[in-house]
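Before relying on records like the one below, remember that each one covers exactly one chain. Contacts with other chains, cofactors or solvent are not represented anywhere in the record.
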Amino acid sequence: MARTRAYQPIPPREMPPARTVLVPDRGEFFVRDTGGDGPAVLLLHGWMVSADLNWYSAYGPLADAGYRVLAIDHRGHARGMRALAPFRLTDCADDAAAVLRTLEIEQTIAVGYSMGGTIAQLIARDHRDLIGGLVLSGTCQHFQDPETVKLWRWMGAVGLGVKLAPKTFFKAGFRRSGIPLNERTAWWMSELMRHSGRDVAEAGRELGRFDSRPWLGSVRVPAAMVLTARDSAVSPAKQYELAAAVGATVFEVPLDHLELTSRDAEYNPALLSALAAVGAREGVPA
């Protein structure tokens, strides 16, 4: 029987410096941080990926534009903290806020993709003093439509698969998505295998429970939406509803949910325009 080739998990490009931020009475957090004196941008990743998988193609362009770029791995995801408590989106929001305060960052623009968009909404609600603006993308106010609810019923199986046979589980996911396992995608696999099965399954259940419709209208913050107009995971209609609820300026990109890195030449200009629209370019050299 032929052995599977041992591809090396080489990242597609050099990542920003990594640091471990110790938050007293809370724990240690893995954070990418480009440093510098520019306006701070906090990147919040989606479900079942890592900060690097979600944002690696955006780190450089944002830093080149003059921003201080930070990105955190959420609880149970990749290098994120393994807490003894169940995964909660509110805890992820509090984690991010605590990291910002520990780093003495007075204000940031929170950029949230997919699950990261729900966390960004919670930070804006619960830690308004830290948020100078919101950029939301590939996300919505709730995931309680009938089609998505069916997905959350499988979270127990997801957690068991990630815990007992992570490589087999994610290889199956690659095959369903038409993604080959090769020199380029081996790094993706290595990042995914860092996850906690229990936490990513509970994160899925949390997304099923999330609903910002009762309170988002009371959150007053400059906002923009990079709307993934061909999204098969979060419908464009639900993204438009979120944009209307938060009063966001909309920048459409003709992308599906997982294409923001593979088609970064289309996504990143829209992201930079969204940042400019919420005033995050103040003080950045032209």
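The domain at 18-142+210-277 is CATH 3.40.50.1820 (Rossmann fold).
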